[in-house]
Amino acid sequence: MNTLTSWATSAPFADIGPAAAEPVSAGIYAVAPLLVGLPLGSAALLLLLGRRSDRWGHWLGVLASAAAFVVGLLTFLAMLDRDASNRVLDVRVGDWIDAGAFHLSAGMRLDPLSMTFVLLVTFVGTLIHVYSVAYMDHDRDRRRFFAYLNLFVAAMLVLVLADSYLLMFVGWEGVGLASYLLIGFWNHRTPYAVAAKKAFVANRIGDIGLIVALGLMFATFGGVDFTTVLGANMSGVSEATLTGIGLMLLLAACGKSAQFPLQSWLGDAMAGPTPVSALIHAATMVTAGVYLIVRSAPVFDAAPTAQLVVVVVGAITLLFGAIVGCAKDDIKKALAASTMSQIGYMVLAAGLGPVGYAFAIFHLVTHGFFKAGMFLGAGSVMHGMDDQVDMRRFGGLARYMKITYVTFGLGWLAILGVPPFSGFWSKDKIIEAAFIPTDGHTWRAWLFGSVALLGAGITAFYMSRLFFMTFEGERRWSTRTDGSQQHPHEAPALMTWPMIILAIGSAGLGLVLGLGNRFVDWLAPVTGEHEHGEPVLAPGVLVALTLVLVVVGAVLAWRRYAISTVPVIPPVGTALTRAARVDLYQDAVNDALLVEPGQHLTRSLVYVDKTVVDGATVGVGQTTVGLGQLLRKTQTGYVRSYAATMLLGLVVLVATVLVIQS
Amino acid sequence: MSLDNYLVLAAILFSIGAATVLLRRNAIIVFMGVELMLNATNLLLVTFSRLHGQLDGQVLAFFVMVVAAAEVVVGLAIIVSIYRTRRSASVDDVNLLKS
Amino acid sequence: MSALVAAVPAVLAEGGQTSGAEEALFWVLAPVMVLAALGLLFARKAVHAALSLIVVMISLAFMYVAQGAVFLGVVQVVVYTGAIMMLFLFVLMLVGVGSSDSLVETIRGQRWAGWIAALGLVAVLAGVLGTALYPESVGLEEANARSNPEGVAEVIFADHVFAMEVVGALLVTAALGALVLTHRRRLGPKRGQRELADLRVEGGHHLAPLPAPGVYARHNAMDVPALDPYGNPLESSVPRVLRVRGQEADAAEYAARIDRVLAGRAAKPDENPPPAADPAGQAVNAPDIADAVAGVDLEGETK
């Protein structure tokens, strides 16, 4: 602890702008580095010990995650004690880069935003760790799985706790790595390995954006730490530069959060074990893009064009995910499409500026709970149905898996936005914020508001479809491909308890945090105060409209999927359905626009390399070899030839001397 | 008669020796060509010794003879051992340098 | 002897100039030497080449003596002709007297290159001799004041004693090296008479002694092959050296004559079966053949 304390001393004090951070070094804040250290150490231990830790490794992983949660909770409580205006803290861990004029220290930014993430990640993470103990029970590599999970938790905490963009980039890459490892956890099956690769590559494209943004920040502000960048006087910087930074950050966010046009990897990422989908691809990692945008709020606030692009991206993704979600029969892929759509909401909210930041994070938290809960429920269903994922082969499971049914139902109600469940508190606020005109542009308010509203209706339809196809209607699960009987059963307690806890969160968290704007006020030190704009429609009208749309969507789904017979073999469907089933041709478009030109480019480059570059180098070599072959002919191996050469040489030499002398 | 005649004779003998080395294939005859060349230089040395009135040239010729004797002993030993293994005394058969 | 040797240069060489005697000696020796040296270049057989080289060397010895290098002349005879050339001949014997060298060139372009190089060398050396500047000839009178061997000894043992020692060491080393090079390590067990006989039986070689040459021939000479009972010449009866040299006589003509004799006998009434029909009859026929051969012999002698 002494070491930690000494690390945390002499933190630089900065008092610039709204993002002013107070350096702290004492008390609970000194142990804050343990937040990262505990899961990281556990991951290293599990990976290094190998099979020797097979028997108890998973419990070590759970313990590390739980301990990180305890540390996070203590830090959070300590922060609550402080004055609301005094809650942005910097914990300096040590010098990181000291290269001439460029100086960067590694430290932790403790503020309401990062604390929210810390609690979300560690709490949901711990629950999912516990769930995984049972879920991965039969996997011989369970220990490795927990090592990766711990690695992910550590990287995610680095991401949200970093006090500079560069350190955040470390966490950003760390979660990418963990995500890659976990999607490809069953990499002995080729499609899963390919899915992992796809996610990795798509994320790298986003990373380019972050790297370019880092470079732009360094060139513009002379540093990459939050204090320097976010605390800078933005009026002194050209808007074009800020727009560039903002768009690059958006590109990074798109890659990480599966936003349009980099959304294609998320559906395939469902190849990973279900707890991974719940933790990484629903609750935490994919929301890192939203975190990035909200964290960079001062940049975006000063770049309206970038903000507009953010909103557009969010709106497109929102509808995209919703439409795809309506057509998917794979329960996990439907949930993934839903995740994409919900993150679209968050991005949209984040793009709205100070009005929406808090709601974006709010929705992120509630979504983290109910979506993780639903993923765990899906895992429970798969557990009971022998790893079946086709919803058309479910149906009527409510009687056999009561706990799963109830917990999933609570998550369903939450995502629909039915009051008083948590989705209502966050999503309706986003819809309301979307209807508030920014800079007097009412057309924007109408456009984006309508999209958000429409999205809520479609969400209600596809989530109800998912819910009804799985739990209601008649059983369609009696036949499997091999004809044997299915025996659905409830999951063990280790799996149900995390689901129950998450369901409680899905049900009540919105109410607890949303009443009296508690969460918005809590985040205020980061997101800043904002003037209350008036939506183009009255809030009451909006709530009513939303509810009507939700009910319409749910009733439609009820009629089609709960009352009427759902065919086990998917019908041909309309053109839109067929398109949505293949993710609106996203892969085809990517192939046509990026992959094939890229392949042609590489092929032609290889051709050029082989003919021109290699031709030059190999040509030099071949010329030398040819000369050598010619010279070789003079090397007959006969002594007399050599003697003749010597004598001829002598004659020529002496003759030359004679000629010169005469 | 000028002493030049000796020198010309030495040059002719030397050239014939060199030609022998280049044109004959029997290792022993090639070796004889080498000896002829050595003898030609000896004649040259003796002539120059007389020209300069100093005996050093003769002494040098003497050393050449001794070294030639040593050379012949070793060279012929090599030829004999090669003949033993390859049943041939042709220098063209000894072309391991190439392969 | 020493008086004679000491007297020769006085006659042949006076001062730096050549006497008429020396000139005569040179013009006699020089063409001989060049011709003999050319023999080295053109002789087909190595022995002839060696002999012509000996001629060159002895002539050189004469020239040394004529030029006042008496000691060197003697050494030339003793070392070169006496030791080195004998060594050459010795090795020629080891390698085989019959090893003649075909003058057909095997390396492409070597003959051209060789001739061009040699003639070029002649030209170049001529150029060098022509352009060089010589001092006035001093002569060896002063240097050979006491006697040539003494003068040479003084130079060798006073001025070049170290070189002398080194050369001595070199000679010893060379002798050792020759021993090592020609030493043959025995790889198998020693073969005695018994083992050699066994080997011969195992190898299926000729067990009995080889037939002697000329036994049934008209000539009793070594180069005439013996004839077997059927009149065929036996190659193996002629000594190997003669065969290698190609000096064996042609047995065919003798065989033909025997055929004639036999044919003459066969024309007479003869109850004896032809010799080849019955192996047992060979012994019976042998005296007849002997007679016939004897007849041929007589006939040949009368010619």
From TrEMBL, chain B:
Source superkingdom: Bacteria
GO molecular function: NADH dehydrogenase (quinone) (non-electrogenic) activity
Known catalytic reactions: a quinone + NADH + 5 H(+)(in) = a quinol + NAD(+) + 4 H(+)(out)
Signal peptide: none
Subcellular location(s) of the protein: Cell membrane; Membrane
The protein's enzyme class: translocase
InterPro entries: NADH_UbQ_OxRdtase_chain4L/K, NUOK/Mnh_C1-like
Membrane topology: Multi-pass membrane protein
PANTHER family in the cross-refs: NADH DEHYDROGENASE SUBUNIT 4L-RELATED, NADH-UBIQUINONE OXIDOREDUCTASE SUBUNIT ND4L
NCBIfam families: PRK05715.1-2, PRK05715.1-3
Protein's name according to its UniProt entry: NADH-quinone oxidoreductase subunit K
From TrEMBL, chain C:
Bilayer disposition of the protein: Multi-pass membrane protein
Keyword Coiled coil: no
Region annotation Disordered: where it falls in the sequence: 264-303
Compartments where located: Cell membrane
Main location (coarse class): membrane
Entry EC number(s): 7.1.1.-
Keyword Transmembrane helix on entry: yes
The entry's keywords: Cell membrane, Membrane, NAD, Oxidoreductase, Quinone, Transmembrane, Transmembrane helix
Catalytic activity: a quinone + NADH + 5 H(+)(in) = a quinol + NAD(+) + 4 H(+)(out)
Family annotation (InterPro entries): NADH_UbQ/plastoQ_OxRdtase_su6, Nuo/plastoQ_OxRdtase_6_NuoJ
GO MF term set: NADH dehydrogenase (quinone) (non-electrogenic) activity
TM stretches of this protein: 25-43, 50-72, 78-100, 112-135, 155-181
Pfam families linked: Oxidored_q3
PANTHER family tied to this protein: NADH-QUINONE OXIDOREDUCTASE SUBUNIT J, NADH-UBIQUINONE OXIDOREDUCTASE CHAIN 6
Functional description taken from the UniProt entry: NDH-1 shuttles electrons from NADH, via FMN and iron-sulfur (Fe-S) centers, to quinones in the respiratory chain. Couples the redox reaction to proton translocation (for every two electrons transferred, four hydrogen ions are translocated across the cytoplasmic membrane), and thus conserves the redox energy in a proton gradient.
Protein family membership: Belongs to the complex I subunit 6 family.
Protein name per UniProt: NADH-quinone oxidoreductase subunit J
Organism: Cellulomonas edaphi
Classification of source organism: Bacteria, Bacillati, Actinomycetota, Actinomycetes, Micrococcales
